[in-house]
Specification:
The structure is a homodimer of 180-residue chains. Chain A has 180 residues and is an alpha+beta fold. In chain A, 16% of the residues lie in helices and 36% in strands. Chains A and B meet through helix 1 and strand 8 of A and helix 1 and strand 8 of B.
């Protein structure tokens, strides 16, 4: 960040009065520009025990498989955002949407929220950001070609929880850098 | 937003190619400026069945009572943020921190995450943003002087859950505007 969004003059990085960390502050109008973590919302859509995955058509991790997920937008709820991303990436409608998994990823200032849900009628198709979509059980998931560690972990937990018949909400942090 | 953070020229509100909603886009360098919901993290600190509340020293809702909470910062986890805010506002250390309550507040593009936790040694004191702090059971909570509807709802649910002995993670949206 180099310039103030309000007056267009240059910003400097300093600790504002009464604060305890550096912020970008306008050298002219003194507006403080806060930046905060972004929320990524997604779904674990399930149909007849199988989970819906999408093969990514875009970088990063093009050609690798993921759960439908993306940045939460202003003006929507996290549940609406998770359902929207599932429509956009997998042309799938979902219902019975329950919070299932939260991952903090502090080194990139992101927080992931995955919702477990039913895939309506088992219907899905590739949206513009996906090359293909498919339903997978534990034995057929392309485990060696999953896009991100949070997806692998969520899928492993899901299949274990499904076998046990209960689905606790888990929160943990990803402290390492995913392979790229 | 009027000016580009990267080059200082003016921005315009338009739908970028491949997108489906308006963004601020620089008229010169074409940088797209995304804005996303902010996360507010907080705690429900409990000691001997009583919940720690803070009387607000700042607007909005100065002189009203709240749970310790505030904006999640870049580079921290949601759990770390909730504990940090509890220290800043109530000079309290907490442990056994478990996700308890999520509120989406889409009309102000915020998402609240409250963590249930133990208040270490029952120790607390007013931080700079609080006038006083105190431990309250259900019968002594100042119900008529709670700062925000999400706080009232979280406290009511907490005392009911404590009586029942189990603490499901709940997610819901606040669709109305709180009194101010």
């Amino acid at each position: 960040m180099k310039f103030c969004t309000h007056c267009g003059n240059s910003v400097v990085l300093r600790i504002p009065a009464g604060d305890d960390r550096e912020r970008f502050v306008c050298s002219s109008c003194e507006l403080i520009h806060y930046t905060n973590p972004r929320v990524i919302v997604g779904c674990v859509p399930v149909y007849e025990g199988k989970v819906l995955l999408c093969k990514r058509a875009i970088e990063p991790r093009k050609n690798y498989w993921t759960l439908p997920a993306g940045f939460m937008e202003n003006g929507e709820t996290s549940v609406q955002g998770a359902a929207r991303e599932t429509w956009e990436e997998a042309r799938a409608r979902v219902s019975n949407i329950d919070l299932y998994r939260v991952f903090d990823v502090p080194y990139i200032s992101q927080i992931y929220m995955f919702y477990r849900c039913d895939l309506d009628h088992g219907e899905h198709a590739a949206g513009p950001e996906s090359l293909e979509t498919g339903l997978y059980d534990e034995s057929t998931v392309p485990w060696d070609d999953i896009a991100f560690p949070v997806i692998t972990q969520t899928l492993k937990e899901y299949f274990a929880d499904a076998a046990a018949g209960h689905y606790p909400v888990r929160v943990s942090a990803i402290e390492y850098r995913p392979r790229r």
